[in-house]
Amino acid sequence: MAESYELFGSAPRVTKHLARKWYLVTNQRNLFFMLAAGLIMPPAGFGKKYYQDTLACAPGWIVLFPDRAPREAVQFSVQERSHLLPCLLETDLASITGEIHVITAEGYLSRAHLPDELQGDEQALLVPAPLPITLITTILHRSKEERSACESDAKDFTNVPLESIKRSVSAKPFSGASAPWIAARGTALPQRQIPLGRVQAAGAVMAMLLHFGNLGQQSVAAARMAFDAESSAASSDVDPLLAYLPQWMWSTPPHPPEEVVQRLFWGTADKLVEWRSSGVAADPLDVILDHFAEMGAELDERMNSTLSKLTRDLTNLAGIADRTATELFERHPKPFSRAMLLLFLRESCAELLEFKHAMLTETDYLAAAILFAARDGWLGLPVTLRELPGLSAAVPARIAAQSHRQQQSGIGFSAIPERPKPIRELLAPGAGGWNRAQREAALLLAREGKWPGVQTRITLGRGEYRLEVDGRGLHLLLDGEAKAIQTEMEMETFFRKLSAHTLSSRQEVKVRKVLRAG
Fold this sequence. Notes:
40% of the residues lie in helices and 15% in strands. The chain is an alpha+beta fold. Helix 4 (197-211) runs antiparallel to helix 5 (217-227), helix 4 (197-211) runs antiparallel to helix 14 (391-407) and helix 16 (436-449) runs antiparallel to helix 18. The longest helix is centred in the middle third of the chain and has 19 residues, at 260-278. 40% of the residues are buried.
């Protein structure tokens, strides 16, 4: 039997599983922020952009109401500003496992385990935050006018994937009777600290390494380590600088790297996460240079000289740069230095993905992608960078699970989406080369890009052949029929072109469709 303790009295609990509709009450601005962050999260996760809603009634917990939300909860969630509109987020709890709290029909606060310890008459559930937004099945509005207003409001933000979730209109769920939802603010609920900076960075790292996953075998390995950090060891396919990636993504707290250059690089990533999470209007360059100064005692004379030269060039980039990108890359041939330069040569993850330079190596791009992700976080990625098939489902589930692991909350998720794989990984040939679907997908890209390397193989039977030349061209004449005419793509040329090409979302969808059909 679940343990109970008194909120308005005491009574025994008999628990059983009963599926119901469970609603989070919020407003459209908080909804936008949560969609952008990929998480249903507590007020602390919003920074200065939080508008009071039911999440404030039990900080660190997500309050869910069955069937109908109390009218007081709806009003409470929009009273702070006149432009706020109420929203109900219908959530699917089937995949959640672990201990939660419930407010019983009699007004008691009780513990229960999901998924099978609900009696069916609870007035509210209090689930440890955060939850992935992929658990939201429907966004409810009171009227068509409010839905239209919400959709119009969302267009002002580039990182709000509102279109990805079903939206419906129904006034009835907004008009529930009173419930002890306000009383939850004064209960003995455990206080919960929920740091989200690292998991937001982890989400962006997954996305950026997937976007760069077609560069080469190292990029494929890095993307795999990012998404499957819990079960991945450092791959021999990646540069030693990046080998610490699984530990940085998943360990709590991670053990410092052994190599000093690794400590310098991953320490920089940590400082960028701290800077973004703090909300302090400091210059990120100052934060990074302070980190360099702290590391100085661990570096030998040669490395200190190199770091001093990099510091001067980064400082110049923040002002009026007196060197071109090519000159800077010539002065700084190592991946760490080049990643740092890229961080200040380009302003966003999207700009990094568009930047091409002949001097940059695969490791340079990957190291830069990690630093950009640490600085911007999943929240900072526009919707256009989340459109790769499977990405917007895989990331929220993983960062929510990672957050609960860091908290040791006991909450788990029984269904984590499969990781999306780079096209290069999906096109990795088997022992006999490409299969039919892989060959068709490669040809699709080659034809669209007008890449070299497309060739036609004509297999002929035994016999005699004659050549004829006329005004139409050269003709090969043979008795009977050709055994096979097959268009092929020269594999080495294809992968070389793929590594230099940024696929559009449309191409990604088309290629993956061809591969699935095969």
